[in-house]
Design a protein that fits this description.
Layout: E1 48-55, H1 65-72, E2 76-83, H2 86-99, E3 106-110, H3 111-121, H4 139-144, E4 155-156, E5 158-159, E6 162-167, H5 168-173, H6 180-186, H7 191-204, E7 210-212, H8 215-223, H9 243-257, H10 269-277, E8 280-286, H11 289-297, E9 305-309, E10 321-324, H12 332-342, H13 345-355, E11 358-359, H14 368-371, H15 383-393, H16 403-419, H17 424-439
Parallel strand pairs: 1-2, 1-3, 7-8
Antiparallel strand pairs: 3-10, 4-10, 5-11, 6-8, 6-9
Helix pairs in contact: 8-9, 8-16, 9-16, 16-17
């Protein structure tokens, strides 16, 4: 989440968990972007205002964490400056880094951008390994933010273990299995089985409904299950020949040609309207996606949505972000202390309970509020169990400098196959030509 993340863009996110009632109003994206930069040093009374710049929805306000931190540290007030869309946030961050002007005390970084920041901007961020026990996170999360000199420039906030969100009532109406165990069994062979299930759905689907929202979403889920995606370990771009990319592209092309998808780019007005109207039967569902569905579908579909394990046996991750501390800030120590606190098990568990983003801190997985978490909106799906099991098996993905750009460009051409009927070969050439201009 961060619900409009680049690659996943973050997307972000939200959903109230466990035994509490879903509070949709707390889950909506906020676009209250601000140009406030890193705060001044302490005032005459020793008071500090720390600024946190992020995108979409990180969940700290919803979980009451900034207010709680102020109670623990009465001299510190935290101000969050949120940009709704990560695609708008990131170019501004790069500009601020290049000019060393306008940066906040804490900056959010999306996983699709972290490699580029690590490779080109690491010297401008504090080394968090000096003050935070980075081994608390899942191992691959730490490595994503580790520079060549061993410094760790970002503290892991969340990850996006995969599941499948589906409308049990629409499945019943189409004569398909509808309980979560049966649905998981029906797609146990992988995303190929998912498309076969989609053909069965289409044959008897209620009028005006579609099996999936977007083929590009399925594509991202497929690619996210592989260790090698767009780059190899040497840093060479391999997206043209990547087995994961080829599999994801071919499945997306098949879904588009068989019209199993409504062809709606995620997080657009048309996509949110489709959820509200109830025309979508399934969504590839990283942990943060459940909140987007519940927020946009609304009370009318509470209990009609459910969550099953993701297709296949390979765990996948889609999304996740980091908190980083620019060295140029006037309150680097205080900002680092805040980041350490926000990414500790208890605080990550609180965010999970508030908006559904799944912790990257392994210590949170044994907390009752995570381990026993259910989602009332999704027929009390045991997401704590589903996502924890998935998280433990996610492969360590190789990240590249332009992961986000490659992913976004391919997704755009998948949308063209769905919406405009662009032939797969033409769409693939358009995607690769565009990517080659960016990465050289």
């Amino acid at each position: 989440m961060r619900i409009t993340r680049t690659g996943g863009g973050h997307g972000r996110r939200a959903a109230a968990l466990t035994t509490t009632v879903l509070t949709a109003s707390a889950l909506l994206l906020t676009g209250c972007s601000s140009d406030d930069s890193s705060s001044d040093a302490k005032d005459s009374n020793g008071n500090i205002t720390l600024t946190v710049a992020d995108f979409g929805q990180f969940g700290y306000k919803e979980a009451g964490l900034f207010a709680q931190y102020h109670k623990l540290h009465p001299n510190i007030t935290v101000k969050e400056n949120t940009t709704a869309n990560e695609a708008d946030y990131y170019p501004k961050l790069l500009q601020q880094l290049n000019t060393t002007s306008g940066l906040s005390d804490v900056q959010g970084i999306e996983v699709g951008r972290i490699k580029e920041v690590v490779d080109t901007q690491a010297a401008k961020f504090a080394d968090l390994s000096k003050t935070i026990n980075v081994s608390d996170w899942v191992s691959w999360k730490e490595k994503q933010a580790t520079a060549s000199d061993g410094s760790v420039i970002g503290a892991g906030t969340d990850i996006g273990p995969m599941s499948l969100c589906y409308r049990s009532d629409l499945f019943k109406a189409a004569g398909l299995p509808s309980d979560r165990d049966s649905v998981a069994k029906a797609v146990a062979g992988g995303w190929e089985d998912y498309l076969k299930l989609g053909e069965k759905f289409k044959a008897k689907a209620p009028k005006g409904t579609y099996f999936m929202d977007s083929a590009s979403a399925m594509y991202n889920a497929v690619v996210g299950s592989s260790a090698e995606q767009y780059y190899d370990a040497s840093g060479k771009a391999i997206y043209k020949n990547s087995p994961a990319v080829q599999q994801g592209w071919n499945l997306a092309a098949e879904a588009a040609s068989k019209k199993l998808t409504e062809g709606l780019p995620q997080f657009t007005d048309a996509w949110t309207a489709a959820l509200r109207k109830g025309t979508v039967a399934t969504v590839a569902c990283p942990a943060w996606m459940a909140g987007q569905i519940s927020t946009n579908a609304g009370d009318a579909y509470k209990g009609k949505w459910d969550i099953a394990r993701a297709p296949g046996t390979s765990a996948a991750n889609w999304g996740g972000s980091f908190l980083a501390v620019p060295k140029s800030g006037k309150n680097v120590k205080e900002a680092t202390d805040l980041v350490k606190w926000l990414t500790s098990p208890e605080q990550q568990a609180a965010v999970f309970k508030a908006i559904g983003v799944f912790p990257s801190n392994k210590g949170a997985y044994d907390l009752a509020s995570v381990k026993n978490a259910t989602l009332p909106y999704f027929n009390n799906a045991p997401i704590g169990q589903i996502y924890a099991d998935e998280a433990k098996a996610i492969p360590e993905a190789v990240l590249g400098a332009k992961d986000g750009t490659i992913k976004d460009t391919i997704s755009t051409q998948i949308n063209n196959m769905e919406q405009r009927g662009t032939k797969p070969a033409k769409a693939w050439k358009a995607a690769t030509d565009s990517i080659d201009k960016v990465i050289g």
